[in-house]
Here is the input.
Amino acid sequence: MQEIVQSIVQQAGISEEQAKTAFITTLTAIKTKLPDSVAGQLDGLLTGSEFDYKVVVNEKVNELRGEAAEKFEELKEEATEKFEELREGFKKIF
Here is the structure.
């Protein structure tokens, strides 16, 4: 992070404190636009950690798993309702 702050100081001609504030403000704004798993990785990148794709992929897989489970539950409920309607229709005929 310090390298970036120093770069801002040199390029913008502002104080280190102003550059740090600008950097943190910008980083915070960017993180609000990213998925939590990616936003969390940014802090690690600034401290020298490598980006952990597994964390991001696992979060997305879990999210998709949850969405799929919800969709299957909705489909199950709709199928049950349609089956009941069909069964009632057959009872009226026979």
Summary: The chain has a mean pLDDT of 91. The radius of gyration is 26 Å. Residues 50-94 form one domain.
